Amino acid sequence: MIIDIHGHYTTEPPAMQQFRDKQLAGLADRARRPLSSDLGISDEEIIASVQPQLKLQRDRGTDLTIFSPRASGMGHHVGTEAVGKEWTRLSNDMIHRICTLQPDNFVAVGQLPQVPGIPPQNCLAEMERCVEMGFVGFNLNPDPSGGYWTDPPMIDKYWYPVYEKLCELNVPAMIHVTGSCNPNFHATGAHYINGDTTVFMQLIQGNLFKDFPDLKFVIPHGGGAVPYHWGRYRGIALEMKRPELAQYLLKNVFFDTCVYHLPGIELLTSVIPADNVLFASELLGAVKCKDPDTGHHFDDTKRYIDQLKNMSEETRHKIFEGNARKVYPRLDAQLRKKGLAGRAF
Questions:
Q1: Comparing C-alpha atoms, which of 85, 138, 133, 132 is closest to residue 113?
Q2: DSSP codes joined into one string, 160-207
Q3: Exposed/middle/buried for 28, CB within 10 Å: 0-12, 13-18, 19+?
Q4: Is 70 helix (H, G, I), strand (E, B) or coil?
Q5: Which fold, 3-337?
Q6: Which of 9, 108, 149, 272 could form an S-S bond across to 99 if both were Cys, CB 3.0 to 4.6 Å?
Q7: Residue 29 confidence class, pLDDT cut points 50, 70, 90
Q8: Contact indicator for 123, 162 with CB cutoff of 8 Å
Q9: 300 pLDDT exceeds 90?
Q10: Tell me, what's the pLDDT at 345?
Q11: How would DSSP label each residue in 249-305?
């Protein structure tokens, strides 16, 4: 089985964005707020909306996508706490409907109702609700301010209620920012990569996993700058009298393969241990066009892994399936319930 752990609902029916537009317009004029959260979107419209993802699954030879709301659409930096809770609930409900209608193709991951300066205890009820609906993880934004980093670092006890709930529910968090409102940081080209890299450095600075030995983070987009600068981070950690990074962080921190060229995947898989790499493509995400040099889509990341030389069948299985089952235990349980126990090496 080929499990893509990083997909986003970027093909929503127009009614969903229309609701969001009215919701945000209502911040300035209460009369413009949407009168109902019932979007009137039929099951048929939802199935039609995910046909692009289903076609790419078939064309690229993948089986299952861990699916979450549009990352840039989470919009934690926009609106009030009440607006954020309403938008989060609606967005997660749409993901739940997709995964109910297409259970062989999609498994749900949720967004959280984060708001800059609002302690993340406000997320706990939504976490419980989503797991009750079958969600297997969450996207956790280290910078709800949208590029200004106004909340404490993720090693701060400010975040501990969320970590406690993640461990209690036995689900991981993918570290994922939303859009950028800081003109210095392009959202997908800078802000996303900044978020990934910044959190890894914060984890070196703290000792978070001493307090939460069962907590699991997935750092997407290939880990940002981390694999490329592994020597820098390893050296900084050693100068700070930390243990080797593999011992200090890699029991809890994992990286996906949303890296859009073969040399990048070669670097990622040569630097990061196979046990810590999970297949992903962002289906559909940051880069949707084709590479004119190859004629293939940049985000067809399975092609790059297939081209890796001297990769053992065991390693390939870990990246494509085994590690996803390990990091997302609720996913593994769902698959086993369907009679898909996976392979053992």
A1: 85
A2: HHHHHHHHHHT--EEE------STTS-IIIIIHHHHHHHHHHHHHHS-
A3: exposed
A4: coil
A5: TIM Barrel (3.20.20)
A6: 108
A7: confident
A8: yes
A9: yes
A10: 44
A11: TTTTEEEE----SHHHHHHHHHHS-GGGEE----SS-S--SB-TTTSSBTT-HHHHH
Please determine, for residue 75, whether its predicted confidence score (pLDDT) is greater than 90. Answer: no
CA dist 26 to 12, 84, 180, 312, Å? 21, 13, 21, 56
Question: What's the CA gap between 110 and 151, in Å, rounded?
Answer: 21
Of residues 340, 336, 301, 341, the one with CA closest to residue 320: 301
Q: Of the residues 282, 313, 314, 321, which is catalytic? A: 282
pTM of the model: 0.95
- HSE at residue 326, side-chain half, CA atoms within 13 A, is 21
**Which one-letter amino acid corresponds to residue 329?**
P
Residue 109 has pLDDT above 90, yes or no: yes
Residue 14's contacts (CB-CB under 8 Å, 6 or more residues apart) are: none
Q: Residue 130 corresponds to which tokens in the numbers above?
A: 């989503």
| Nearest CA-CA partner of 161 in 215, 226, 98 | 215
